[in-house]
Amino acid sequence: MSVRHTVVDSPVGELTLVADGDALIGLYFDGHQRKPRLDGFGPRDDRGFGDVTRQLGEYFAGSRTEFDLPLAPRGSEFELKVWGLLTTIPHGETRTYGQLAAELGDPGAAQAVGNANGWNPISIVVPCHRVIGASGGLTGYAGGVDRKRFLLALEEPPADEDGRLF
């Protein structure tokens, strides 16, 4: 099979899904701030994206906390390591760039981790939105900080009627 794409609506705007064979290789926002590193998205073909659109729908409805999709992001060895770490950040939690750098064994690599995070080609599914600055602030996001804020709020644990977290 060859590279193909589709466009779907979501609560954060249109999303372009890109696949190569059965594997998702890209998920981009309308107005994505980093130009995808692909030679193109291939022809539009709405077939074969059913699992992705179903799981995204469940995620936005609050009933899915993990994605179970074949992924094949394209990047450097370092980027692939960083993106792999992103998939281990649990739903509803965040990590700092420094924490991820330390997990990679190089605490001084926070800036390199941030750069790799920014090039993540499979937004939402590979949850780069769960990475925040050392001060706890929301730093840049290829989909824009408003989308990052929305996704993090969507993942906040529920509170009971007294405001306590379960």
TrEMBL record:
InterPro entries associated with the record: MethylDNA_cys_MeTrfase_AS, MethylDNA_cys_MeTrfase_DNA-bd, MethylDNA_cys_MeTrfase_DNAb, MethylG_MeTrfase_N, MGMT, MGMT_N_sf, WH-like_DNA-bd_sf
Boundaries of every Methylated-DNA-[protein]-cysteine S-methyltransferase DNA binding domain copy: 77-156
Sequence ranges assigned to domain Methylguanine DNA methyltransferase ribonuclease-like in this UniProt record: 3-73
PROSITE patterns per the UniProt record, alphabetical: MGMT
GO CC terms in record: cytoplasm
Localization (cell): Cytoplasm
Catalytic function, reaction form: a 6-O-methyl-2'-deoxyguanosine in DNA + L-cysteinyl-[protein] = S-methyl-L-cysteinyl-[protein] + a 2'-deoxyguanosine in DNA; a 4-O-methyl-thymidine in DNA + L-cysteinyl-[protein] = a thymidine in DNA + S-methyl-L-cysteinyl-[protein]
Gene Ontology terms describing biological process: DNA alkylation repair; methylation
Enzyme Commission numbers on file: 2.1.1.63
Pfam families per the UniProt record, alphabetical: DNA_binding_1, Methyltransf_1N
Alphabetic keyword roster: Cytoplasm, DNA damage, DNA repair, Methyltransferase, Transferase
Active site per the UniProt annotation: 128
Molecular functions per Gene Ontology: methylated-DNA-[protein]-cysteine S-methyltransferase activity
Its job: Involved in the cellular defense against the biological effects of O6-methylguanine (O6-MeG) and O4-methylthymine (O4-MeT) in DNA. Repairs the methylated nucleobase in DNA by stoichiometrically transferring the methyl group to a cysteine residue in the enzyme. This is a suicide reaction: the enzyme is irreversibly inactivated.
Family, as annotated: Belongs to the MGMT family.
More details: This enzyme catalyzes only one turnover and therefore is not strictly catalytic. According to one definition, an enzyme is a biocatalyst that acts repeatedly and over many reaction cycles.
Protein name per its UniProtKB record: Methylated-DNA--protein-cysteine methyltransferase
Record organism: Amycolatopsis saalfeldensis
